[in-house]
Amino acid sequence: MKLFLDWSSYENAGMGDAYADIPKHGADYAKAVAVCIGSKQCEQIGKGVMCPSYRISGNPVLSPGGRVKLLKSALNADDEQAFLNPSPALEEAMALCVSCKGCRRECENEVDMALIKAEFLTQQVAQHGLSLRRRLWGELPKILCWPIVRPLLLVRNRLGWVARLMEAGLGISAKVRLPLPVRQPFRYGSTAKDAVSVGPVDKQVVLFVDTFNHYFNPAAAEAAQTLLKAGGYQVYIARPLADDEPQRPLCCGRTYFSNGRLDKARHEAQRLLKALEVHVKAGRSIVGLEPSCILSLRDEYLKLGLGEPAKKLAEKVVLLEEFIVREQAAKRWTLAFQALPEVSRLLLHGHCHQKAVGAIKSVRKLLKQVPGLDFELIESSCCGMAGNFGVEAEHVEHAQAMAELALFPALRAEPDALLVSNGFSCQQQIQNGGFSEPLHLSQVLCMALPSQE
């Protein structure tokens, strides 16, 4: 079997482990599957993320352990085509994995089902071709550049028959409102300011504005820029190179990665690596806003065969909250936050990937520094949107059930609370549930900056 991701880190996985039962097909990919020891930790109900599809169904087959059993069976079959032409049970089990990375963090053996699914999807696309809907999801970073996108989405959201037609043709649920790009995307500003380095490198930072914040929530990026400047940092904006689609924002490639287009994901990664090369060499930190994008740079890029540049980038990339807390610990961030007199209560929903890397601790630490702020972290699993999962006709009911596990009940209980959520998908799921628009942490902290008067 030709593998599309680099699984060499699992080369020695399962050696001497009587429970590993490594399948005969799949090489190191099979070893990554076999790290599961069947403890059924993924079938626990309670706090944490793992596993959303199991939680809403109670079906062990829809847990990471259940998926492992089905994958092992396919990879152990005499005919290798059993994996390339999976059973309906395996297809459904993998389709209902939302790639939350809960298992990567909460499983004793760190089963990485999100990464396993990425290889599985790419194998299916290579064997059976690409559906129009998957092509559409993957190409979103390029499609969003088209001026006609906003008018088309406005029509689709306003006219039920258009939404129903879209559902019939593409399988995009008519029950869900699709997000609209703002009229004015994020503006990079003058390039002249980025030409000359000022001050020590540890007071210089690069802000990476991902595709979705660029087109849908530039206010979060603008707030982050203001916040970092107020902290005394020279802020560079990561931008495309002049000879590489300069009108299209840099993108991590996750939409391709999660839809079985690893070739395209690798191209986007190389484009980003080239644009950030000068900053990485200079030793600047790369700060991002969207958890799934930043985790791509730190995790998935290391599996794409991109070599040393990807490793060096992974060492420099942090989420905004991680950066500020790190700088505070190093005594380089001395700016104190002020009270938010008009905010009496704040609810925080963490993106699954924030939880996977432990970044929620940094968010909570920062919110605690806002005087008098009464806030609470909602103990929830995945919101259910999970990229394009929550707008697909066959998955929309599953997505709603995931949101109803804890997130939506918590929001209904406190309708007047200010909502904070850093994930673009999470923000859309919350708004589609009829709740007020959540703010990004950058916006809240920007509101808490000391008065300039």
UniProtKB/TrEMBL annotation:
Start and end residues of each 4Fe-4S ferredoxin-type domain: 34-111
Coiled coil feature spans: none
Pfam family, one: CCG
Any one GO molecular function term: 4 iron, 4 sulfur cluster binding
Alphabetically ordered keywords of this record: 4Fe-4S, Iron, Iron-sulfur, Metal-binding, Repeat
Top-rank taxon, per record: Bacteria
The Cysteine-rich domain, residue ranges: 348-430
Protein name per Swiss-Prot or TrEMBL: Ferredoxin
Organism phylogeny: Bacteria, Pseudomonadati, Pseudomonadota, Gammaproteobacteria, Methylococcales
